[in-house]
């Protein structure tokens, strides 16, 4: 593993070492293209296979077969000629395919002939009253600690929300001996009916049996409350309890830890900052890049693979990574492309991997009240802006997320809208009687992750200096 | 459908919005046409400097006029625009610069302008304690300050609308033409007609002027800015440099804005800009040297706003030299924000009274008479 | 809030949190080590000073901001611990120029 890029230009730069990025890197490198894989984490795997090369969880069955499925691909990439840099923050990408990277407190630029963004997903904001309290975290956060440090909840723990990851996490916590006092299931009852037309594809997909077994495993050990329609985290400076409403029942459960999850959405920041066109996806309720069948975007040379291109799950991500890489190989090394798996075979594999997705999207479509908060509930965690603040700004003329910044600084904190953007769009759409597409999203700008002034000041100023530093 | 108005203003930047408001205050019913939304470009995303300091003599009277409006902006707009007046300081980085500034202040005094004041090293450090020890002095304009540009432009727009102006956002003005005594402009399926047309279209104004037979040497530029995370308060005035490009300001919320005129590559037709990080690195280095205290602050975001810069870096403000009822208000060349309130007031006087007491004679479009595009 | 599974056999190492020695494991991120320590590691926000703990643990939320070896506003969830690392919990706006 290298501390800094060995060249100042590559055929292919892949950003993100999750399933899609690893697959893209393996394919591109195997075809003889100079390939650089950049990833923010200490090791490969992304979120799904997080810490796969270092996890202290030695009892393999506790994390499950889907987790360990990543090991082969990690091995393939490590054996390849691709350069891999971990703990690299990509803070800029533009339409000239220039990439600003920060590694170990120093920044440099590299150029690419093709960029494959595999920046994956992040958990959908879950803006309930009290979600900023210490003791409230995402389910993914708990899973990250479980995989990378074998840490499990041991206080009074409530898991709330919906979706496959929630059940997987619960099963993993229980297998590692952690504590869960209650699961509050927020799946809307009407969704079961809506999802019915997609049920056949789902029950014949590999997700079905696995999902059923996992839910059975969890329900045998933890009380589950279904049909939850209201949720509040309460406490003074620290979580003390979780209140909920389900049917006619209203209850407060004492809790030290509340883990929230209502699905994942594409992590769009880098792609949007580069200028890639995105559209509102009404089924998945998020912004997705406009892509062609090969993952190509509105910007020549930039492709997106994996969940960053629209949520499809790990298996689909691997195939999408291979497809995006294959398109790059066809463009840059046509002779090598001829020897590869035909594109038609990859597309067929993708269709197979995406089977059942429509069912999951429909069944686990998050309820309106958990996406669009009201009153004093915080929407923008960084700048501490409430739903009421935003509705008030709309009343005096804020028409979209960018105009809103002038009134309320929403999205202007360090997370750059990652945890408020979707909420702001939907909240403003509701307040103005418009569609989310009409309301739009924040104009995102580099640096997509903060860099220090000293680091920027130390950046090489001429192209010769650039070479001197990146070769350093 | 054709709709009649008293005046058509093309461009919803601070200039167009200010003119709309001042026309409405004079009892007219203007329509303002903005292809995106008010303040989408330079007017909404500039550094927010409210500066009389270090201006070309030709625009000082307009700047002073504008300052008077800034100082009662809340009365005018029912919005404080986050305007704060802690002065602006032009820092001399060495004795050579200080000598040049001394001569400049003497020249202004001779012309009767007293807003710029030469300061020594001790006063500089009193005003800007964090500045590097090597700076020997500078110039201060004590009434200057800064405001929130998007908030200000929006406030002008809102008040103009409240007083009877029509604001059409999201559709571009097209087919600008003269029909009889009226100026006509198509906006989507509608046509607006008025005896008066104000060209305040910023980066897009040069095209309109040229299409009406008055080409101006103007280019589209996109000055870049960057902003830091919140840091504890350490500076009140806005600081600018002239030798190296820098403007520097800390907001009440603790964030620090770094600008100064390094340019991004604008793409006018796509409505976007590509940042030049090598130039931003130069800005960062200047701050690094001038304000050692800032070295481990984090840069949160960088951006650029599209605007027009004329060949002589002075705005075009006043009536057309060719057509009755046509007025130009563009080309503010990276320093138009402070001028917005005053320029709108002056423009309304030109339209309503046929003249103004504010000296703007050097800003007329006829200075480019011999230019052909 | 969290405890370590018995199967975790990674070597331990010492870091310092506001000057106090704390045990961590090799491969922990700073945020994981802080949460596992059982100490009060809540930071105070720069906007209002309200207490926060890490929320996402994957580099997204910036609620894990800490000062590490004198450099402020680092994302603790992305930085692996190292022996002797000095960590300060940030209270309010990050001081500059120390």
TrEMBL record, chain A:
Superkingdom of this entry's organism? Answer: Bacteria
List the SUPFAM superfamilies hit by this protein, alphabetically.
Answer: FAD/NAD(P)-binding domain
Q: Which UniProt keywords apply?
A: Oxidoreductase
Looking at the record, the residues that make up the SoxA A3 domain are 379-458
Q: Where is the FAD/NAD(P)-binding domain?
A: 10-318
List the PANTHER family. Answer: ANAEROBIC GLYCEROL-3-PHOSPHATE DEHYDROGENASE SUBUNIT B
- Protein name, UniProt field: (2Fe-2S)-binding protein
Q: Which organism is it from?
A: Bradyrhizobium iriomotense
TrEMBL record, chain B:
Which stretches are transmembrane? Answer: none
The FAD dependent oxidoreductase domain, residue ranges: 6-350
Q: Keywords in alphabetical order, please.
A: Oxidoreductase
> Which Pfam families does the UniProt entry name for this protein?
DAO
Question: Is Oxidoreductase tagged as a keyword?
Answer: yes
Q: Does the keyword Oxidoreductase apply?
A: yes
- SUPFAM superfamilies, per the entry: FAD/NAD(P)-binding domain
Q: What is this protein called?
A: Sarcosine oxidase subunit beta
- Native species: Bradyrhizobium iriomotense
Automatic annotation (TrEMBL), chain C:
- Which Pfam families does the UniProt entry name for this protein? Fer2_4
Q: Do the record's keywords include Oxidoreductase?
A: yes
Highest taxon of the lineage: Bacteria
Q: Does the keyword Oxidoreductase apply?
A: yes
In terms of InterPro entries, this protein maps to:
2Fe-2S-bd_N, 2Fe-2S_ferredoxin-like_sf
Keywords of this entry: Oxidoreductase
What this protein is called in its record is: Sarcosine oxidase subunit alpha
Q: What is the lineage of its organism?
A: Bacteria, Pseudomonadati, Pseudomonadota, Alphaproteobacteria, Hyphomicrobiales
